[in-house]
Amino acid sequence: MNDCIFCKIRDQEIPSYKVYEDEKVYAFLDMTQVTKGHTLVIPKKHVSDIFEFNEQLAADLFTRIPKVSQALQTAFPEMQGINIINNNKEIAYQSVFHSHVHLIPRYGKEDDFSMHFGDHSEQYSPEEMTKIAQTIKEQVS
User: Fold this and answer.
1) CATH says 5-137 is which class?
2) pLDDT for the residue numbered 1
3) Active-site residue among 38, 46, 100, 120?
4) Residue 98 known to be catalytic
């Protein structure tokens, strides 16, 4: 894809701070550095989001996540945890439409990164939860 910034980074048309590369993935520091070591892992093949993945592409990308995460932990022993985030589509906060996984090291509660999930469990009865699960289950092949 000609206008994709991540394809240009992958092809080294735009400089990046590469931390890992093999024949299937490219990992580099996110320019925003939400926390020290914030890394993006992208498939070398251009796909917009998870909805364009097949099983092999998913395996190629997601089997590299532990390797890069463990490298972050070794590089930064003060790291207390990590957030692994993959946003898909604009409504889910995807801003670059080349699929990518954020690895965001966590150093403490004051590291200026937070996630909030609302609890809407009271809105769904057990019968509704069963229906939702069944609807999804029917679509898994």
Assistant:
1) alpha beta
2) 62
3) 100
4) no
Tens digits of per-residue pLDDT, 37-96? 999 999 999 999 999 999 999 999 999 999 999 999 999 999 999 999 999 999 999 999
The overall average pLDDT reported for the chain is 95
Q: How far apart are CA 70 and CA 58, in angstroms?
A: 19
What Å distances lie between residue 1 and 10, 79, 98, CA to CA? 11, 36, 9
d(CA 32, CA 126): 42
Domain layout of the chain by residue ranges: 5-137
Phi/psi region, residue 74 (left: phi>0; alpha: psi -120 to 50; beta: rest), is alpha
Alpha-carbon dihedral sign for residues 69, 83, 102, 106: negative
The answer for residues whose C-beta is within 8 angstroms of residue 97's C-beta and 6 or more apart is: 4, 48, 49
Asked if residue 97 lies in contact with residue 45, where contact means CB atoms within 8 angstroms, the answer is: no
